[in-house]
Amino acid sequence: MDNVSKTETSEETLQTPDALASVLERIRGVGRVAVYYHYANGSEKATESDVSFFQWTSDSKRDKEELIGVLVVAEGASDKHIQNKLVVTLSSVLQISPHRIVIEEMELEE
Question: Which domain of life does the protein's organism represent (predicted)?
């Protein structure tokens, strides 16, 4: 398998929020993670689920829309070093500008 095939497989695997969250959770200090993608408005009529700014979706229709933002809620996000690491990682992996990535601390469950 050549590098191109490996890269395409990795990018396809990380297209779903669940898959990306699973990978991000493996980074030291990050803890549990929830990932929400925000897509550019498509030509399709907006539905109630399209109203929210950040959405959780794995619909195949989203494959054709442009990813324009990401919200990551992580347990370790209170640490500025972890926040920075997540922004750099997501910017590289998803090929979006760092200013389009929002990192928030996850509320700890008791």
Answer: Bacteria
Cβ neighbourhood burial of 46 (10 Å; 0-12, 13-18, 19+): exposed
Q: What is the DSSP letter of 93?
A: H
Distance CA 40, CA 20 (A): 19
Domain boundary assignment for the chain: 3-42+51-105
Topology of domain 3-42+51-105 in CATH is GMP Synthetase; Chain A, domain 3 (3.30.300)
pLDDT per residue as tens digits for the range 5-25: 444 434 455 668 899 999 999
For the record, the structure tokens of 109 come out as 């469950």
Tokens representing residue 21 in the block = 């969250």
Consecutive H or E run containing 72: strand 67-74
Mean of per-residue pLDDT scores for the chain: 77
The per-residue pLDDT for 41 is 75
| Structure-token match 């990306």, residue found | 20
